[in-house]
Design a protein that fits this description.
382 residues, globular, 64% helix, 12 helices
């Protein structure tokens, strides 16, 4: 459980949310994680339903939420575990992270399978042999690349597309435990800088950073992970040396909306300004947002919202896509009017939030609590 201290060093009433290990919780970063998850749901449902280049295609750059998540993860993992390695083995770390992440991987894969099988609008779109579908489900449960299935855009996680970033998250945690935790801040900074240059080249060459989720550009996945995850680790190590402005959840969330909703930019003079914009967000704006969020206080009025948003972010991200595909297939097979489709989309948003909350309360948190007790693990800040 988290506790809350109410007395600051000056004696004034200050609410400081703390983890079970006694560390202060980054409540504004939690809130930002939830904001980004909601924005990526909007990105998926509007663009899958209306198309990618229409007046109703929203959040054109919201695929960058994945890079933002990777950066947050690196920062929070360093905060939670950098000082625990004298009393924690590598195997214990892997067990902690599996307990934290994998129960919802199972739920997301199962939702994806059920959505694929019982989508009332998927006839003629969702067509895959039973053995191939079973193989896709098993590999999804194990968070391994799955065979392509019909109607799923050649995604590496065919039944639950967003899970591709979770596979990268696992790789990032493995790299942290085996190598990255041992590196000095300077070395991490060099890795961030060199990989950042490669990211700039990739973004300019491809025209965006929207890649890594499908097989044709799967090579982009580890690049996006390396840049942002290492950036998060590096930021945590150097934060004491840099100015840390305090900006609240509302302003930072609005900044994310502005970043994601920016229009697609043209090419000129052999440069892709759209791709360079993506790279600038990842390399400059996201580190700034993370540092500002980490050192901002939510305040008594916003702390509950931040905690709720943070708890909801992962289940929302990992469970929503099955329902998005149902709406998208409805749009492409029934060709409803714009007003009808918008009505279904606006009903979908609170629905997927409610589903995520139910999954969190009645599956994820109880299962993680049982596994934590079963293996005698003390929970960390991450």
């Amino acid at each position: 459980m988290n506790d809350v201290s109410t007395l600051g060093q000056t004696g004034s009433a200050v609410r400081v949310d703390r983890t079970s290990t006694g560390k202060e919780h980054f409540e504004v970063l939690d809130g930002l994680r939830g904001s980004a998850a909601i924005l990526i749901v909007i990105f998926h449902v509007f663009n899958y339903s209306f198309g990618w280049d229409t007046p109703l295609s929203l959040m054109h750059h919201a695929y960058l939420a994945v890079d933002f998540f990777f950066g947050l993860s690196g920062f929070v993992v360093a905060y939670a575990y950098d000082d625990r390695w004298t009393r924690m083995s590598t195997l214990q770390f892997f067990r902690i992270r599996l307990i934290r992440l994998h129960p919802l991987v199972l739920v997301g894969a199962t939702f994806g399978l059920l959505g694929y099988l019982f989508d009332p609008f998927g006839k003629g779109i969702n067509h895959t042999s039973a053995p191939m579908l079973l193989l896709a489900y098993v590999t999804s449960l194990l968070l391994l690349p799955s065979p392509p299935v019909g109607g799923r855009q050649n995604e590496s996680q065919a039944l639950n597309g967003p899970a591709w970033s979770l596979m990268q998250e696992y790789l990032g945690n493995i790299a942290y435990a085996l190598i990255l935790r041992r590196l000095r801040a300077l070395t991490l900074g060099i890795i961030f800088g060199v990989s950042g240059l490669l990211l700039i080249w990739t973004a300019n060459m491809k025209g965006s950073l929207d890649g890594g989720w499908g097989y044709p550009e799967i090579w982009m996945a580890p690049l996006r992970l390396t840049v942002s995850f290492v950036m998060g680790l590096w930021l945590y190590r150097i934060q004491a040396r840099i100015r840390r402005p305090k900006i609240g959840l509302l302003v930072l969330s609005i900044l994310l909306v502005v970043i994601f909703q920016a229009p697609k930019l043209p090419n000129a003079g052999g440069l892709s300004f759209n791709g360079l914009y993506d790279a600038a967000c990842v390399l400059f704006l996201f580190p700034l947002i993370i540092i500002c969020g980490a050192h901002s206080d939510a305040g008594a009025g916003m702390m509950r919202l931040c905690k709720f948003s943070g708890r909801l972010s992962y289940p929302l991200y990992i469970t929503h896509i099955a329902f998005v595909y149902i709406i998208a297939n409805f749009a492409h097979t029934r060709h409803p009017s714009k007003s009808v489709l918008l009505t279904y989309i606006f009903l979908l948003l609170p629905f997927v939030i409610a589903v995520a909350w139910l999954v969190l309360k009645y599956f994820d948190e109880p299962v993680r609590a049982w596994l934590t007790r079963r293996y005698g693990i003390k929970r960390a800040a991450a």
